[in-house]
From TrEMBL:
Domain GHMP kinase C-terminal: 305-385
Name of the molecule in the record: Galactokinase
Species assigned in the record: Corynebacterium spheniscorum
Keywords noted in UniProt: ATP-binding, Carbohydrate metabolism, Cytoplasm, Galactose metabolism, Kinase, Magnesium, Metal-binding, Nucleotide-binding, Transferase
InterPro entries for this protein: Galactokinase, Galactokinase_CS, GalKase_N, GHMP_kinase_C_dom, GHMP_kinase_C_sf, GHMP_kinase_N_dom, GHMP_knse_ATP-bd_CS, Mevalonate/galactokinase
Length: 409
């Protein structure tokens, strides 16, 4: 079989900024005051541990969301946005923004401005905005963080406000957690703001410290292939929150999971029976133990993987990726048939490692492959998906790129 391989289209940052600027002119009949971009991300390892004081190793993608913006005198935010085939238009008064309002995509934008104002970083003032994006929506590549972070840097620049990236990240997270109502853990915003060309970022969520780790796959003759499975994932929100509820609950009772060597969470499981009411006490204990095992093993694995990367042992790093995937699939149960198929196919075709990336339940997987094998592996994945009657996947070579920034047009 030779199925058509779909590549994720990517503009350069300048092209994206130019397109946002043109969209702004066409929409508002005037020039924007400037243009800002923020990237999506892949996470190399350290999955579902950011909300458990764990360690993650993401890098920022070259694919960005770009916003062209101009400040207004009032508190209205007018938004026009084009992402792929979706064009969206809306306006929101910042005075109406707050917890769970608006709990849709515009909440990422106006929620960020609201949270920055709440933190005293910028005044509560409106903007006209035009956005374009190459970070595919719903692909698990943090299109929401890209949206929040480009708006955050735009608002700060336009109000001549200076704030540490951690303060911006916190405001972006508030938009996501409180306004949109997604209980995510902060990984995506940090990397979208702090990414650097040619580097991954080792983040320790215990104290939010981070440092850049050179990530030069070219130098090893390797590449990171990212595959958006295009799998439908309607269940995602509830499933993410239910995983998090267990980890939050167990951590509250026993302290950070990272510090507990022989933690047995049975007592917590008995005090907090299966909220869905489907599992009996023993089955629920087993499930809670598996959830805890994932978080604990993933934190240790990520610490090791960072060392493997630093000493250039890419096969060991690939093995850690595979072990991470197995843990997410079997213990944390956040994978899905499409993600497993990407991983299994890539490994069968000679990848050094592969795993789901991001929250799971659909979204994207990554594979560490020899540069010479990129086309072959992309083709094998497209063929396997066609054979299984899955939707067409989309692929890209993921290039570690810079975080949110202003782009002169
Ligand atoms: C999503 C969330 C992040 C993180 C990952 C899983 O991307 O937004 O905070 O929890 O899932 O690692």
């Amino acid at each position: 079989m030779n199925t058509h391989v779909h590549w994720i289209p990517t503009r350069s940052r300048t092209e994206a900024a130019e397109d946002a600027t043109e969209l702004f002119r066409n929409t508002y009949n005037t020039n924007p005051a400037g243009c800002w971009v923020a990237p999506g991300r892949v996470n190399l390892i350290g999955e579902h541990v950011d909300y458990a004081q764990g360690i993650s190793l993401p890098f920022a993608l070259s694919q960005v969301t770009a916003v062209a913006a101009a400040p207004r005198e009032d508190t209205l935010v007018r938004i026009t946005s084009i992402s792929g085939d979706n064009t969206l238009q809306t306006e929101v008064d910042l005075k109406d923004v707050g917890p769970k309002n608006p709990a849709n995509w515009s909440g990422y934008i106006v929620g960020t401005i609201w949270a920055l104002a709440e933190a005293g970083v910028v005044p509560l003032r409106g903007y006209d905005m035009a956005l374009v994006s190459d970070v595919p929506l719903g692909a698990g590549l943090s299109s929401s963080a890209a949206l929040e972070c480009c708006v955050a840097v735009a608002a700060c620049d336009l109000q001549e406000a200076t704030a540490e990236k951690d303060i911006l990240a916190k405001a972006c997270m508030r938009a996501e957690n409180e306004v949109v109502g997604a209980s995510t853990g902060g990984l995506d915003q940090q990397i979208s703001l702090k990414g650097e060309d040619g580097h991954a970022l080792a983040i320790d969520f215990r104290d939010n410290s981070s440092y850049q780790v050179p990530f030069d796959m070219e130098g090893h003759g390797l590449a990171i292939l990212v595959v958006d499975t295009n799998a439908p994932h309607e269940l995602a929100d509830g499933q993410y929150a239910s995983r998090r509820a267990v980890i939050d609950g167990v951590s509250e009772k026993f302290g950070p999971l990272r510090d507990q060597e022989n933690l047995n969470p049975d007592q917590w499981a008995d005090e907090n029976p299966d909220p869905s009411g489907t599992l009996d006490a023993e089955a629920w204990r087993k499930k809670v133990r598996a959830r805890v095992a994932h978080v604990q093993s993933e934190i240790a694995r990520t610490a090791n993987a960072i060392e493997e990367l630093k000493r250039g042992d890419m096969q060991a790093f690939g093995n850690s990726m595979c072990a991470s995937h197995a843990s997410l699939r079997d213990d944390y149960e956040v994978s899905c048939p499409e993600l497993n198929m990407v991983v299994d196919t890539a490994m069968a075709q000679g990848a050094l490692g592969a795993r789901m990336t991001g929250g799971g339940f659909g979204g994207s997987a990554i594979a560490l492959v020899k540069k010479a094998d990129i086309e072959k592996i992309a083709q094998a994945i497209a063929d396997a998906f066609a054979e299984a009657n899955f939707r067409d996947p989309r692929v890209a070579v993921a290039i570690p790129a810079a975080g949110a920034q202003r782009v002169e047009v």
